[in-house]
């Protein structure tokens, strides 16, 4: 799934990154960004966070700002699907400078993390400074290409408040990731990219590296597998 989230993040950071020791560890403490259960008529997992084969292909382009990783989770969903806050917080940005066009939303949470909801259908109706509760509808999902028939999906990120550090949402969101992964196009294909020098690294949805925006590529592998050609990206 094409997810041009990395575009537009170049000038988007501010302040010092948070000390990792000050941030909460992933413990399934957040909810999913949809009120409805997964299914073919509601939403399904589209692409995991991290070292996906597609991110490897796009490591110098779409995801170049994010060390070559897919630095969010993609949920395939029809345009207009209600998106809910994953936990309590305060709206910090509406259509801010963090990419994930055509519209995005950032909520700051009191634990030191932020959630970003991207590729939204329209400008979210919430206002900066507005408190929101977990499960409250805050936006509608859209399409990264703006068509609603190309790649309709929600891109969800977990960041620190400085917007420089990005974390794997899988551990923070309580969900049955193993079942969701069964219908994931990455899992049906070659899955996560391997470096044959370290073939076991970053091969599960849970075991993926954190990202520092504009840091060096993490997946410039010496012996990548699968090779790039002739695989083409999974598209919907
Ligand atoms: Zn994405």
TrEMBL record:
Residues 69-163 form the M23ase beta-sheet core domain. InterPro entries: Cell_wall_metabolism_enzyme (IPR050570), Dup_hybrid_motif (IPR011055), M23ase_b-sheet_dom (IPR016047). Gene3D superfamilies: Glucose Permease (Domain IIA). GO terms for molecular function: metalloendopeptidase activity. Residues 1-20, 197-216 are annotated as: Disordered. This is Peptidoglycan DD-metalloendopeptidase family protein. The lineage of its organism: Bacteria, Thermotogati, Deinococcota, Deinococci, Deinococcales.
């Amino acid at each position: 799934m094409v997810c041009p989230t990395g575009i537009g993040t170049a000038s988007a950071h501010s302040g010092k990154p948070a000390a990792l020791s000050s941030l909460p560890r992933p413990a399934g403490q957040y909810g999913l960004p949809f009120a409805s259960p997964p299914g073919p008529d509601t939403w399904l997992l589209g692409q995991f966070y991290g070292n996906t084969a597609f991110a490897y292909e796009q490591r110098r382009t779409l995801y170049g700002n994010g060390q070559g990783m897919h630095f969010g989770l993609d949920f395939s969903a029809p345009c207009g699907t209600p998106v809910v806050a994953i936990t309590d917080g305060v709206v910090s940005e509406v259509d801010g400078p963090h990419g994930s066009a055509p519209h995005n939303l950032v909520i700051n949470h009191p634990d030191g993390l932020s959630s970003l909801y991207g590729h939204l259908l329209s400008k979210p109706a919430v206002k900066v400074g507005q408190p929101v509760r977990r499960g409250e509808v805050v936006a509608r999902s859209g399409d990264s290409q703006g068509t609603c028939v190309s790649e309709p999906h929600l891109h969800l990120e977990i960041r620190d408040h400085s917007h420089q550090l990005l974390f794997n949402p899988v551990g923070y969101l309580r969900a049955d990731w193993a079942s969701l992964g069964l219908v994931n196009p990455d899992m049906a294909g070659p899955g996560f990219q391997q470096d044959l020098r370290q073939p076991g690294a970053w091969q599960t949805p849970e075991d993926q590296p954190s990202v520092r925006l504009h840091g060096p590529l993490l997946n410039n592998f010496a012996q990548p597998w699968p090779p790039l050609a002739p695989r083409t990206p999974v598209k919907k």
